[in-house]
Amino acid sequence: MSTQQLLPPAVAAPPAKPLRRRRRDGRAAVLYLAPAAILLAALLAYPIYQLVLISFFDYGQPQAAGTAPLVFIGFENYAQLLENATFWTVLAKTVGFAGACVIGSLFVGTSLAILATRVRSLPRMLLFLAALGAWATPAMAGSYVWLFLFDTDFGLVNEILVGIGFDGMAHHSWTYGTFSAFGLVAAEVIWCSFPFVMVTMYAGIQAIDTEVLEAASLDGASWFLIAKSVILPMLRPLLMIATIQSIIWDFKVFTQIYVMTNGGGVAGRNLVLNVYAYQQAFAGSEYGLGAAIGVVMTLLLLSITGLYVRSQRRSDAWL
Amino acid sequence: MYVRRSLTGLALLGLIAGCAPAQSGPAGAGGDEKTGTVRVWLFDEANRAPKEEAVKEAITEFKAAHSGVEIDVQWIPVEGRADKFSGAFNDPANAPDVAEFGNTDVASYVAAGAFSDLTADLQSWKEGADLLPTVLDTAKVNGKVYGLPWYTGIRALYYRTDVFTELGLKPPTSLSELTATARQIRAAKPDLYGISVGGKYTYAMLPFLWASGGDIAKQEGDKWTSALGTPEAKAGVQAYADLIKPDICPPEQCANLTGTQSVQAFSGGKAAMTIGGDFNHKAVEQGDVKGKYAVVPLPGTQPGSIAPAFAGGNLLGTFAASKKHGLALEFIELLGGAKYQEKMYTAMGNLPTLSSVQQKVATADPFLKPFVDTLKAGTKFVPSTPAWSKIDAQGVLPTAVQQVATGGQNVDTALSAATEQMNKAFG
Fold it and tell me: Which domains, and CATH codes, for chain B?
């Protein structure tokens, strides 16, 4: 409402110059945008254009090396992909796995951020150091460390479990069962992605004006009500960024699955879309099919994040 | 307005720029320069030092004979080879002149047009006639030879002599006896795998398939079709998958093992038997079981027979786009010749491909006897078509074996899915 009241005077500005002025603005805008636009065109638009193009061709190693003619096959790569039952299973598993990782890292990250605002500086510093350590660990190294911890024969975890009386856990294989393997990898993914959420949310909480909170408590709001109606709505933009980032990262997980389940688990039951694409298409030099998987994945991610952003814009009530 | 118009312009330009994906130009015809640097790609291996030593010696000899020639060796990791080679195929100008590569990859590399046809060159080579014909066959695509076989890899049955003596067992003489023996050992010694084999160890599975009378695929004219649907193939896969069971090699530990990991389990003392290659000798010697093991040929289905082994091995080839064809060819003939094959055998334990050298080293080293016996009994090979690289990369056979081993699917369903996938790859 208030914006509408403010608008009329702005529109009623002197009508003489606007055209020339807008033009000059346009030129300036183009100039300002040019560096970013050129970068985006070179690094994003062109590769995506090539990706889409390749997905319409029978494009393997001979075609890439220029020793075989290019054959346009229209949507055949997509048809081949979509009628493949394995693709749908893998897609469903990827969505489930990414969903668990997103929820997990948001929950752990936000909880620890709240914890960080409530403890004194030394424990907070330790918490941040630990989180940054996990954050800085390369995915490959992190995956191997977790594998060693959960190793069947020499793993610390099994040793401790046997030590405290769970004899059945001797030589237990954590990476064999479908759920067990996915769970282990999800734990590793959450471990290396919660610090981003935590740091973001911590910054957000710190930025909330204490006067707002004081005002709310003076009005008699309970702690729960303050969290629900004051803090969370103010954190919403940050939470949205963290969620979108997590969705994109976790949907595209490759290293952790590839390393920890030895390339997709027993009989490929721990495959996620990225590993599947690599195995089916790139390792086998079927770049056309691989490009089609890439395009499908991009579209999926765009629509998931698009829907999420829209739902966040629309809903007024939080929770 | 301007922004939108210029963006549309840009987009249009992009569309006009070309509606076909990027391709690199076809490789040039190459040349025959007599001086300069010859670039060589060799595989990096776990214990590379002795290999590097032998190669260095060859380089010194080569340089002494050719003035103004340098040899630049790059060590390529075996796991990352696909990326490296794809890169070389797409950018012939930066490709090496000589490369070592696995014989299972030869068909797909040739389809990319990267390697030169060496048929005539090897025929006129004075040592060419000494190359074992079965080994030379693994370097052929459509009847033409694209690589000089550098060494052969043959697998046989490693077993623990101490365990066998303690339990009063004899090395198995047939595949069914092998299964029974493995089961017996695990029952007596629950800490040991009866035999360490894995779902991802395709080259251990193939002898079971072949011994049962099955095959991977059949060729009619130019067309390959999967042969996994035959009762013989099913029997073979089932026999192998039966080893990955709780009473021999529990699926929790073994279903995902690769060849290297299976041999590691044996050399680490965790298994009573394994299927290992002559090239695994050094690794097993360095393990806990040194002095406590022996090797026999992997038996076939009939008592006393030998199962057909997979004729693995590496080749030396020259790139078609090389500017130094003559030098490259001379270098692989030196490295693949009798003198350096013998040196490579001493350095790495690789089985030579020249029959005279093979005979010489086999008489001197009794360890090689079971491998040479296996080789003589006849070997088999994977389908020599570019599609095989794809089938291999997609893990079609390991997936089927794992499905059967873990009881997820019976052998009929698992193999019919594999058949379908293979036929799709064959096209």
Answer: 36-153+311-380 (3.40.190.10), 155-310+383-426 (3.40.190.10)
